[in-house]
């Protein structure tokens, strides 16, 4: 027991050191007036939420200029800003004074903001809990490998602790919702995932996975009317509590959270629409409403096959190793739904790759090589963003550390295919070539962002192949009719406890 706990503590401590190491690099918009960046946006939200009535947080006024980082995240995120802002009013009041604190920067503020991310980080304990409970002994990986690789995944570290955001809250809530759902605690899972959506709307990328699993399990398989009613009640109650302060103005708040005017994609991002726009211009050519509707329809159509597959598996009777197959199907669909949404939905940021990245680290116990490869690719796809902010060295260092941990944990040895290993080396080599070109090759005058666009397109090709591969994995999973009921060791935490 002592060795198990010491392993977890060491992994968590190293994860915290990594995060605070990245925090020493520049944040988004540092020293770049007049709008600065996401660091200033979150500071400004603390200023707004602690100085004007809650019912006016999302409305334009003389004290709340929506053109200057107006709140555009769901209510729980705004309440999170309010809680942090109240603490800041005590410790550093000048940092949240209404209007006069715009663009406020100081070393103490930087430390406090970085500390607020660390104290809000639900993702670290949630990932540890997941890998302890659902360790897979089939791959013969030491339990610490999956835990450490998950905690060291660069996108989670760089976006929150480098760029500056609080994605660790919604992502952590999502992982906790997954843990409770796979442990058959449906009501608690529903509350946690509803909170995740209300902290950051991008959590909707995972919503179909939860919906298909819950409906298939509770309605079709168990015909459990009472639990279904209880789940529906807690969801509606949670949603009601989130939106109650905004009364009849909830439609206006929704428009703030889901704006159409920002376009089909944000900057240079490895999505289908960005690549398509390079050849057939879409952004700024067609009305945003039409483009958004087309993106929504195409995304839903592409989500249907994998969602029906999960629904059908969740609807069947669990027997023997079917429990493990269903868990794999759930996690694969979590990846497939989020990568499809990333590639084809409307208004996608490059940082949104964290959603399929979250599913990838949860799949590490089952598909270690492919999962680690995806994490590396998703990390390097963010290079232009962090180059612009001056923290690209931190991205390269954290990515190198992740690869080192994976190598020491023999993740890359989990594949016996020499061709696949060569493909991995070639894949990373392509990124290295593009990054070197970005630094040392002068692009043509008519293509000033040639290498940034090249990284986005190269990433899109990778993401598309991963999407196809994981759809293949999900559809190829079959129930075995002659397998014996598995022991706790094969599907639960018992084997994890033995090996930790």
UniProtKB/TrEMBL annotation:
UniProt xrefs under InterPro entries: Glyco_trans_ALG6/ALG8
One GO CC term on file: endoplasmic reticulum membrane
Major enzyme class: transferase
Predominant subcellular localization, coarse grouping: endoplasmic reticulum
Transmembrane segments: 111-134, 141-159, 171-197, 204-223, 229-252, 290-310, 330-348, 360-384, 390-406, 418-438, 450-470
Domain of life: Eukaryota
Pathway: Protein modification; protein glycosylation
Keyword hit for Membrane: yes
Signal sequence interval, chain numbering: 1-24
Pfam families: Alg6_Alg8 (PF03155)
Keywords: Endoplasmic reticulum, Glycosyltransferase, Membrane, Signal, Transferase, Transmembrane, Transmembrane helix
Membrane association type: Multi-pass membrane protein
Compartments, record wording: Endoplasmic reticulum membrane
E.C. no: 2.4.1.-
Molecular function in Gene Ontology: dolichyl pyrophosphate Man9GlcNAc2 alpha-1,3-glucosyltransferase activity
Cited PANTHER family: DOLICHYL GLYCOSYLTRANSFERASE, DOLICHYL PYROPHOSPHATE MAN9GLCNAC2 ALPHA-1,3-GLUCOSYLTRANSFERASE
Sequence similarity: Belongs to the ALG6/ALG8 glucosyltransferase family.
Name of the protein this chain belongs to: Alpha-1,3-glucosyltransferase
Species: Folsomia candida (Springtail)
């Amino acid at each position: 027991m002592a060795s198990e706990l010491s392993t977890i503590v060491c992994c968590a401590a190293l994860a915290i050191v990594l995060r605070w190491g990245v925090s020493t690099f520049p944040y988004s918009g540092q020293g770049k007036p007049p709008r600065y960046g996401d660091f200033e946006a979150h500071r400004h939200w603390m200023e707004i939420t602690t100085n004007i009535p809650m019912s006016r947080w999302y409305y334009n006024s003389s004290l709340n200029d929506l053109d200057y980082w107006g709140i555009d995240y769901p209510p729980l995120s705004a309440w999170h800003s309010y809680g942090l802002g109240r603490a800041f009013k005590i410790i550093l009041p000048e940092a949240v004074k209404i209007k006069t604190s715009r663009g406020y920067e100081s070393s103490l503020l930087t430390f406090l903001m970085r500390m607020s991310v660390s104290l809000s980080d639900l993702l670290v304990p949630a990932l540890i809990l997941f890998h302890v409970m659902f360790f897979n002994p089939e791959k013969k990986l030491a339990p610490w490998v999956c835990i450490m690789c998950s905690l060291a995944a660069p996108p989670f570290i760089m976006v929150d602790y480098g760029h500056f955001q609080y994605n660790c809250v919604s992502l952590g809530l999502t992982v906790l919702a997954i843990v409770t759902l796979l442990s058959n605690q449906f009501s608690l899972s529903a509350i946690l995932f509803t909170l995740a959506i209300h902290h950051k709307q991008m959590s909707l990328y995972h919503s179909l996975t939860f919906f298909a699993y819950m409906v298939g399990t509770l309605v079709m398989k168990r015909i459990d009317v009472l639990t279904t009613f209880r789940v529906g009640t807690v969801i509606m109650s949670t949603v009601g509590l989130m939106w109650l302060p905004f009364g009849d103005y909830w439609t206006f708040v929704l428009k703030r959270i889901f704006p159409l005017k920002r376009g089909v994609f944000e900057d240079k991002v490895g999505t289908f629409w960005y690549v398509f726009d390079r050849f057939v211009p879409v952004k700024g050519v067609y009305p945003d409403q039409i483009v958004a509707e087309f993106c929504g329809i195409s995304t839903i159509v592409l989500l249907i096959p994998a969602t029906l597959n999960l629904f059908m598996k969740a609807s069947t009777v669990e027997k023997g190793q079917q429990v493990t197959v269903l868990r794999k199907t759930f996690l694969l669909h979590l990846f497939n739904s989020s990568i499809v949404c990333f590639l084809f939905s409307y208004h996608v940021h490059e940082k949104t790759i964290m959603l399929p990245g979250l599913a990838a680290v949860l799949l590490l116990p089952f598909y270690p090589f492919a999962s680690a490869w995806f994490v590396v690719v998703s990390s390097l796809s963010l290079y232009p963003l962090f180059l612009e902010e001056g923290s690209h060295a931190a991205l390269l260092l954290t990515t190198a550390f992740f690869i080192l941990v994976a190598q020491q944990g023999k993740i890359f040895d989990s594949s016996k295919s020499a061709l696949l290993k060569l493909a991995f080396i070639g894949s990373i080599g392509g990124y290295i070539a593009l990054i070197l070109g970005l630094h040392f090759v002068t692009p043509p005058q008519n293509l000033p962002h040639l290498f940034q666009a090249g990284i986005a397109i190269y990433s899109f090709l990778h993401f598309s192949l991963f999407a196809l591969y994981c759809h293949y994995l999900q559809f190829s999973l079959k129930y075995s009719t002659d397998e014996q009921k598995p022991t706790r060791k094969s599907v639960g935490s018992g084997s994890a406890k033995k090996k930790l």
